[in-house]
């Protein structure tokens, strides 16, 4: 369901709160929401419904420093 076209052109409202909190974001989404996370350098993303990609993203985040 999350990979349907409508979800690619919308930005979840909760994403704004995550950005305002200033904490790293792990997003499993496509389209505009993923672009916001990537372009703002606020976290890591993987494609919607990509479970292997999510696991890789978790590992990548765990290896990062606080900087």
What tags apply to this protein structure?
4 helices; single chain; 67 residues; two-stranded parallel ribbon
Please outline what is shown here.
With 67 residues, the protein is mainly alpha-helical.
Give your account of this protein's structure.
This protein has 67 residues and is mostly helical. The protein has one domain. Helices cover 51% and strands 12% of the residues. It contains 4 helices and 2 strands. The protein has helices at residues 5-8, 13-21, 31-39, 51-62, and strands at residues 25-28, 43-46. A two-stranded parallel sheet has the order 1-2. Strand 1, helix 3 and strand 2 (43-46) form a beta-alpha-beta unit. The longest helix is centred in the last third of the chain and has 12 residues, at 51-62. The chain is flat. The N and C termini lie far apart (35 Å). The relative contact order is 0.20. The mean pLDDT is 88.
Order of helices and strands: HHEHEH
The total strand number stands at 2
Structural domain tally: 1
* Alpha carbon gap, first and last residue: 35 Å
Provide the spatial order of strands within the biggest beta sheet.
1-2
Quaternary organization: single chain
Percent of residues in beta strands: 5-15%
- Counting DSSP H or I runs of 4 or more residues, the number of helices is 4
Major sheet details: 2 strands, parallel
Estimate percent helicity.
40-55%
In the predicted model, the low-confidence regions spanning at least 5 consecutive residues are none
> What is the residue-averaged pLDDT?
88
Global morphology? flat
By secondary-structure content and strand pairing, the structural class works out as mainly alpha
* Radius of gyration, in angstroms, nearest whole number: 12 Å
């Amino acid at each position: 369901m999350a990979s349907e076209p409508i979800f690619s052109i919308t930005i979840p409202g909760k994403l704004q709160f995550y950005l305002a909190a200033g904490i790293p974001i792990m997003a499993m989404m496509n389209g505009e929401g993923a672009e916001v996370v990537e372009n703002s350098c606020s976290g890591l993303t993987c494609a919607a419904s990509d479970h292997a990609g999510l696991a890789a993203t978790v590992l990548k985040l765990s290896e990062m420093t606080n900087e």
